Amino acid sequence: MVEFAVWAPTPERVRLDVDGTRYDMDRSDDGWWRTEVSARPDARYGFVLDDDETVLPDPRSPRQPDGVHDRSQLWSPDPDAWTDGNWAGRSIEGTVIYELHVGTFTPQGTFDAAIEKLDYLVDLGIDFVELMPVNAFGGTHGWGYDGVLWYAVHEPYGGPDGLVRLIDACHRRGLGVLIDAVFNHLGPSGNYLPRFGPYLSSGSNPWGESINISGPDADEVRRYILDCALRWMRDFHADGLRLDAVHALVDTTAIHILEELSAETDALAEELGRPLSLIAESDLNDPRLITPRDRGGYGMTAQWDDDIHHAIHAAVSGERQGYYGDFGSLEALATTLKNGYFHAGTYSSFRHRRHGRPLDTSSIPATRLLAYTLTHDQVGNRAVGDRPSQNLTFGQLAVKAALVLTSPYTAMMFMGEEWGSSSPFQFFSSHPEPELARATAEGRKREFAEHGWDADEIPDPQDPETFLRSKLKWDEVDDGEHGRLRRTYQQLIALRNHHPEFADPWLDHLRIDYDEARRWLVMHRGAFAVACNLGAEPVDVPVTGELVLAWDEPTIGAKGTQLPGHSFAIVKSPAQATSD
């Protein structure tokens, strides 16, 4: 016998459909409906609400073999499928994370195909794989942020069994796994949750209606979110979550849902005997996210830091549009690297108001902030999805990598970044509903046309070619300058891991020198100096020592080093080099 249960306070009647046979369910005072029936371990089932004869999927569906509009299927992880019993786990702090989209990471776009590339990631020096959302969403391919059945795994990737195989394979190789989870909105295709209960609030955010986490009947909605988050880490052995756009979680209760999730994650980590990490994506520059709970914070492990990305990208590329307007100078870059945030209660010209709050660098280590030169957002949300590698020299890409990978922050990369992939990462979708498909395509063109782009240049998200163009070209990995850049990334990561100076997480120990006019910047990490020339012409930098690593050969003299244009050099001070 199998007990079926669903929280559905809205309908007056709920029936269970199991393989075509229907059963009445009993309602309790808390809005839950339950019944116990005989069912096969892989039975297809769903719920029929009131007089509508449509069978709807389970809001907590463990599997959707035929898509988000069809019946759910019973599924539970097979204990014998796991071979990672010796995996002790690790915190993400100070590591190198590799963000990837399963559908475009390989030609096949599946979990099993991704397994074939794991040895490559280990050889590169990666510590964690971060999967863009793998929850069930409408259509066959998309970014995954329009999920509607958060408990189920996207079937075209390989479903829940495929995800088990991937995570197990990662752990066997010493790789941790993070899963990108979206709890701030629901997608437009297949969202039946409002028919069951008050999952949505009266508010909205840029992606749709907001989730009801602090209004009437919010307790069960919060539980829905918390149980889903914990399920990824408990049932699928994930080592943590990246939480999408947490600033869109409008919570007016005394205990914010992020604080609640942090506490329950810590409890689960203690139960499992291995570390679990929560990474917040937030544009608030609010250190309360990463401040311990016993000091009044939410207790998250880390957060994405877009200010670091903006400061590096604007300084290297020269772009100044939109939110890059406050960045671009070496002063802004040095300030951001030294303080974690650039906007810390300071005026933002992009927002036309003050923004952010200072980070207490004496008590919060830099490893609680993620530094990166690239993310899926910073590429895919550009009009044509162009990567920096399509606009910058390989030397400029190498400078950006050096700044991130030798910084005190936890480092993150986006798939293909390490070899300067020529593939764009464009916004793509496959909504099966014609009207929704048309609205998505037209909305994308309209949005960027308003910012001066020719509408004809904007890729159609629904065109399958947009998806196919975004797949990585693995034959580039060792080809010419692509291969040279990849080897540089590998060496930077090895340097980061081998020398304790690069593991020092305290920003108070970091010293940065720069010359605005001559476009050079030096980041001092103990005995090491990371000298970067962001200009196109050779420049003399007042550091010297033993050459450790460089992009293009520098000329090292007794009192200084000449760097070629768009290059970096890492040198070790003579005294330290001699003592070694």
From TrEMBL:
Keywords noted in UniProt: Carbohydrate metabolism, Cytoplasm, Glycosidase, Hydrolase
Binding site for substrate: 242-247, 306-310, 376-381
EC number per UniProt: 3.2.1.141
GO biological processes: trehalose biosynthetic process
Active site: D244 (nucleophile), E281 (proton donor)
Catalyses which reaction(s): hydrolysis of (1->4)-alpha-D-glucosidic linkage in 4-alpha-D-[(1->4)-alpha-D-glucanosyl]n trehalose to yield trehalose and (1->4)-alpha-D-glucan
Any one GO CC term of the record: cytoplasm
Ranges of biased composition (kind: Basic and acidic residues): 60-72
GO molecular function: 4-alpha-D-(1->4)-alpha-D-glucanotrehalose trehalohydrolase activity
Family: Belongs to the glycosyl hydrolase 13 family.
Protein name stated in the entry: Malto-oligosyltrehalose trehalohydrolase
Naturally occurring in which organism (per UniProt): Mycolicibacterium elephantis DSM 44368
